[in-house]
Amino acid sequence: MEIAIRPKLDRAAVEAIARKHLPGPIEVVGHEEFKDGFFNAAHALEFADGRHVVVKVAPDKAHKLLRYEVDLMATEIECFERGLAAGVPMPALHYGDPEGGVMIIDRLKGVSLPKAHKDIPEAEQIALRREIGALSARFATVTGERFGYPRKSGRTVADSWSESFLAMIDDVLADIAENGSPLPRPAEEIAAVVAAERDLLDEVTRPALVHFDLWDGNIFVEKAEHGWRVEAFIDGERAFYGDPVAEIVSLTFGPEDQQAAAVEGFLGRGMTAGEERRLALYRVYLMLILVAECDVRGFDEEQAAHQRGWSTEALVKNLALLEG
């Protein structure tokens, strides 16, 4: 899929980045470009000495981006560094340049969960979801200095979660207004519904690291001796410091029994009423992002209509839950 903001690099350019930043000598014997991402360029290289790496390059800063997407490579590098230190399964980070927008990581041996899904026995799927929940909970053991996105502008950085999250909502609504993206109801009404939950948000007092993009495409699995297992999580560019419950948004896109297993693995219990309500807030936020990005990614008409359709439907549903 062609994405307008994704950098276009040829093999020679990718090899040059690897030679510049990795220990040598480097003889490249294989190259593959991944075209299923929506933001960064990602190219795999195989070296004659057996190493396999992925080179990621951020979009040019001249491109129109959403407000939260500024410094996204810096965010991803921080997510990798802190997540790996906390024992989160992620590819090894060999090089990271936040300013230059480049990172080099190990290439994983497994496959993304959607590609493996048909091969995973139904009896193993619940256990795998529980493992995904438990391993992703390690992100939340990392504590930030303050709430918000770890970017230079500090637009969403705050001492309280309510102040930070409301700034995040304001930013994405500003993106939507600026780009003329359609909403099912006025932005002011949506902002008011979220702002009414300020006290509930302030029940969160520790800024935990949240990956916030753990949909199945960012979860790699592999078949081990005793069944399928999680190999690693990838793509931490949406990470922020906030409520750990926000992680559950992307973990619960599937069937209800698998959703419940992921939550059990993540929390070690069921959700409280307050957590369920906060989860609806975070679903509202993610759906607003998905609506907003349709007008900056350069999607074709069919892709934009599909994403806008299902994300708007989920947005309406979760706003109704909050108001009900």
Automatic annotation (TrEMBL):
InterPro entries in UniProt: AGP_Transferase (IPR051678), Aminoglycoside_PTrfase (IPR002575), Kinase-like_dom_sf (IPR011009)
One Gene Ontology molecular-function label: kinase activity
Residue ranges of every copy of the Aminoglycoside phosphotransferase domain listed in the record: 35-274
Matching Pfam families: APH
Superkingdom as given in the UniProt entry: Bacteria
Keywords, in A-Z order: Kinase, Transferase
Protein name per the record: Aminoglycoside phosphotransferase (APT) family kinase protein
